[in-house]
Design brief:
38% of the residues lie in helices and 18% in strands. With 241 residues, it is an alpha/beta fold. The chain has one domain: Rossmann fold (3-Layer(aba) Sandwich), CATH 3.40.50. It has an eight-stranded mixed β-sheet with strand order 1-4-3-2-5-6-8-7, with helices on both faces.
Amino acid sequence: MNESSKSALEQAQEEGKYIRKVRSFVKREGRLTKGQAAALEKCWPSMGLEHTQGLLDLTEVFGNSNDVVLEIGFGMGKSLVEMAKNNPEQNFIGIEVHRPGVGACLMDADEQGITNLRVFEHDAVEILADCIADGSLAKLQLFFPDPWHKKRHHKRRIVQLEFAEKIRQKLKIGGVFHMATDWENYAEHMLEVMSAAPGYKNQSQNNDYVPRPDFRPLTKFEQRGHRLGHGVWDLMFERIS
């Protein structure tokens, strides 16, 4: 949030005005297991990132200048940890608002000796605005976001034109915004939004969806969906300007 926005927000709050943000997620706190709590205590000093740190120097954060992949909403972190393990030449940042998922991710990463992963427990939109420099990401991943399937809730879907522009600014030229969903209507929505978003090129040869790339791990949830005949749609859009 820039200074003028902060001032306006603070002034409105002082005047007793209620500012309602349209969130793309519902915060479900849940209960931490002992393992998750222990992992948070042990690993947060080395793997945790705070919104209060402000704009990050990613070379300083990771101790190298490797490409950085950022994932929004990593859930329990299984696939994110697997990707970090399989691609040690890349750095990974995960953002998740649900504390048990952050704890589970850290526990898994610690058990596997992962060193190229950092995590935020915060709202992704604020992290992108305040902590991630423009042109700094090689890839941004958004896998299985809340589909908000009721039509009256579609405005809550995170993939909108304004969001696509925020992502484009954070990607390097040639960087990729990779989305996946198991809701066909949301896949169509994503395709419509991203096809209209300036500065992107669809990596699909047919200008629609791409096959699941090998580097995106197949989750248990997704495997179950396949067995039940559910579809999954991947979209990959490259920043070209």
